[in-house]
Design a protein that fits this description.
Elements: E1 3-7, E2 11-16, E3 19-25, E4 28-31, E5 39-44, E6 49-56, E7 59-66, E8 70-71, E9 75-76, E10 95-96, E11 103-104
Antiparallel strand pairs: 1-2, 2-3, 3-4, 5-6, 6-7, 8-9, 10-11
Length: 108
């Protein structure tokens, strides 16, 4: 196989044809190229949600996806983890900041 993984005391390296193409070291993933076909999410449930970088007919869009609120006594309100992954309509809604400096989205 052209793929291999090397693990030592400091990092885990992923090799392709003998060349290191990515590695994990000190809680960070280092990789030369990433191709996200549908969506790349940045954020955390603990911080209230995620910024989703998504593909749109006009190019790349950025969308905030809030997580569901948690009731400490009863757990998640309104559904499971899977249900919060995508908005109910799955559609991208253009977003404009309050000062009108940046506009994300497209279409008329």
């Amino acid at each position: 196989s052209p793929f291999a993984i090397n693990i030592d005391n400091e990092k885990m390296a992923f090799l392709q044809n003998g060349s290191e193409v990515a590695y994990v070291k000190y809680n960070r993933l280092h990789i030369n190229a990433v191709e996200a076909v549908d969506r790349l999410s940045v954020g955390a449930r603990a911080h209230g949600g995620y910024f989703d970088f998504i593909s749109t007919p006009q190019g790349m869009g950025v969308k905030w996806r809030a997580v569901q609120q948690v009731d400490e006594e009863e757990g998640l309100v309104g559904g499971s983890d899977e249900e919060e992954q995508v908005g109910s309509s799955g559609e991208y809604t253009p977003v404009t900041d309050e000062d009108g400096i940046f506009t994300f989205g497209g279409g008329t």
